[in-house]
Design a protein that fits this description.
The chain is an alpha+beta fold and 460 residues long. It folds into three domains: 4-159, 2-Layer Sandwich (Beta-Lactamase), CATH 3.30.450; 218-302, Helix Hairpins (Orthogonal Bundle), CATH 1.10.287; 311-454, Heat Shock Protein 90, CATH 3.30.565. The protein has eleven helices and eleven strands. The chain has a five-stranded mixed beta sheet with strand order 6-8-9-11-10, with helices on one face. A hairpin with a 4-residue loop joins strand 8 (374-380) and strand 9 (385-391). The radius of gyration is 46 Å and the shape is rod-shaped.
């Protein structure tokens, strides 16, 4: 996934590269259209002045070389071609002394050569090429001898201290711009990353997380609005939990009364009578509602941010065996085979809460397993503590599997079975409090595999 920071940097670098390319193109166009011709004209004027001066020496050929050397020292590269087609160079040597056909006409036809079309004439870099055809050429005569003078500015001398300073200045600007771009990207993306993290916390029902972003811009306004939203969600969540706790607590007393009177009615009613059947139904439903109220109370207490675990060291394998023995009559009733592979393992945990975990998972495995099938329970401590409970039951559909740990969620196939939809949600919260995790794997119609991971035994 591309982060916003990376996208910002990539986009900025792309625009920087495009700006450089566009700048080079525009500079090249400007040079070819205007500067190049001005430079050619200036060089041609200097070459003609030198040629006129040489012709005015009245046949003193011995003075040619000293004079041309002095001119070269002023910042020029000069090549002198005599009638015998021999070159004499002055100043910085040329990289290539090859002449084009047009340049050769300076000597043969006494024509002026401008070097306008030398090399890649449409690139300004060709202006800096130290080749003989990248010069201007003029013919002249001294002592009835024909010469051709080729001249260009010495690019090495043009790269003076001011050019070095200018280059350093431009490089400094580029470095500062790049550094500023990275810092700006960091400043822009950091609050967004904090918002993203806060959103995840809220999605996990953590309403105590607040943003510490103070900016006088749209991101600052967004952070303030987000904090206001979290505050309202926190108030609503606290009100909901308080309501559930109060209602669950207040339901216990009347439910116990209903259950007690139902037991009395059932005991006094004649065996097999309608009155006894009605009383048993009332008693059963009162038990179910009482169980729901207890689950709501437990879940509400687990939601408290400072829930205090009553941790102790005990034998986890013995606890799981005891939980299975508790359902022995149901196993025998459905003729279920239980395969146990329990390594001797000590755990540091809340015994009562963990007992709820095994009770819920084992009862679910029994509830949804067909008669005469098997249930497998494995406990290992090789890589942390791992408890696996597998069955060959009805399984869970792929659509329902991601939601089974949500509160009050019940898969369609479980509607025919009694339940509250809170059991797995409570299991999830208990295991999370112990810094563990619960994993579910299931194939619809084939069975379910539940794996509970707990930290290795460590008493604090």
């Amino acid at each position: 996934m591309k982060t916003l920071y990376r996208q910002f940097i990539q986009t900025s670098l792309l625009f920087l590269a495009l700006s450089i390319v566009l700048g080079v193109i525009l500079t090249n166009v400007y040079y070819v259209s205007f500067t190049k011709q001005e430079t050619i004209d200036q060089n041609l004027e200097r070459a003609q002045e030198v040629a006129v001066t040489l012709e005015q020496m009245h046949g003193d050929t011995a003075a040619l070389e000293p004079f041309l050397s002095s001119v070269a020292n002023l910042g020029y590269q000069i090549a002198l071609l005599d009638s015998e087609q021999q070159f004499t160079t002055f100043g910085e040597p040329f990289e290539d002394l090859t002449l084009t056909d047009q340049a050769e006409q300076v000597m043969s036809d006494q024509q002026i050569y401008t070097g306008e079309n030398a090399g890649l004439s449409f690139f300004m870099t060709s202006h800096f090429s130290s080749r003989l055809d990248n010069t201007v050429g003029v013919p002249f005569q001294v002592d009835d001898q024909q010469y051709a003078l080729f001249l260009r500015q010495d690019m090495n001398l043009l790269s003076s201290d001011i050019h070095t300073l200018l280059l350093a200045f431009l490089l400094s600007i580029a470095v500062v711009n790049l550094a500023g771009m990275f810092l700006m990207a960091k400043q822009l993306t950091r609050p967004i990353s904090l918002l993203q993290q806060a959103t995840r916390e809220v999605a996990n029902d953590n309403y105590s997380h607040t943003l510490t972003i103070s900016r006088p811009d749209e991101i600052g306004d967004l952070a303030n609005s987000f904090n206001e939203m979290i505050g309202r969600l926190r108030q609503n969540d606290e009100s909901r939990k308080t309501f559930i706790t109060n209602v669950s607590h207040d339901l216990q007393s009347p439910l116990m009364n209903i259950k007690g009177y139902a037991e009395l009615l059932s005991a006094k009613a004649a065996a097999g009578s309608d009155e006894q059947e009605y009383a048993e139904v009332i008693e059963s439903e009162a038990k179910r509602l009482s169980g729901l109220a207890k689950q709501l109370l437990l879940l509400s207490s687990l939601d408290q941010p400072v829930y205090q675990l009553k941790e102790e060291t005990y034998a986890l394998d013995q606890q799981i065996r005891k939980a299975i023995r508790h359902y022995r009559w149901r196993l025998d009733e459905k003729e279920l085979d239980v395969s146990l592979k329990l390594m001797k393992t000590d755990v540091y945990a809340d015994r009562e809460l963990m007992n709820y975990v095994w009770d819920n998972l084992i009862s679910n495995a029994i509830k949804y397993s067909p008669a005469t099938s098997s249930i497998r329970v494995h406990l290992s401590n090789e890589d942390g503590i791992s408890v696996v409970i597998e069955d060959n039951g009805t399984g869970i559909s792929a659509a329902d599997l991601p939601h089974i740990k949500e509160r009050f969620y019940r898969a369609d196939q479980s509607r025919s079975e009694e339940g509250t939809g809170l059991g797995l949600a409570i299991v999830q919260e208990i295991v999370k409090l112990h810094k563990g995790k619960v994993e579910f794997e299931s194939i619809d119609g084939e069975g379910t595999r539940v794996k509970v991971h707990l930290p290795t035994y460590k008493e604090e």
